[in-house]
Write a structure and sequence with these properties.
two-stranded antiparallel sheet, mainly alpha, 6 helices, 2 strands, DNA polymerase, domain 1
Length: about 140
């Protein structure tokens, strides 16, 4: 079953869709995340469910989410790497997965310890930028 949530198509079973809607409300209202942040997080989660639909052979259920192994999550991250996604995007996707699975646990919908084993990719360190003469004179 697919459902549009805040303009983003999420493909999963009805109980998972309900959990995504609950998580979406929590992000927007309790955590007070910006519209752009919520939208980016939903896109990342929708991409994960699209992957799971292919990986599992059908839309994911809460039982499927509970039974995912570390290898399943690594397979998703490998797919993202093969699509040449930026490391910063993949780091955000890992954060989204951790947050969504924490929400499932908090709401007592599903418990999956494998998601805790996910590690974000190492992000390159930003090189410091030199100050312009004008900025330096103000210091």
């Amino acid at each position: 079953m697919a459902k549009e949530i805040a303009g983003i198509n999420v493909l999963a079973r009805a109980e998972v869709i309900a959990a995504v809607e609950s998580w979406h409300r929590w992000l927007a209202h309790e955590r007070r995340a910006s519209v752009n942040t919520v939208s980016a997080y939903l896109r990342d989660l929708a991409a994960f469910f699209a992957f799971l639909t292919m990986h599992l052979g059908g839309p994911a259920s809460l039982a499927d989410l509970e039974n995912l192994r570390a290898a399943d999550f690594r397979s998703y991250l490998a797919r993202r790497a093969a699509e040449d996604r930026a490391k910063t995007s993949t780091a955000r996707a890992v954060s989204v997965l951790r947050g969504f699975f924490r929400h499932l646990e908090r709401e007592e919908l599903a418990l999956n310890g494998a998601v805790a084993s996910l590690r974000s990719p190492r992000l390159p360190r930003a090189v410091p930028r030199p100050l312009s003469q004008e900025q330096a004179s103000k210091v």
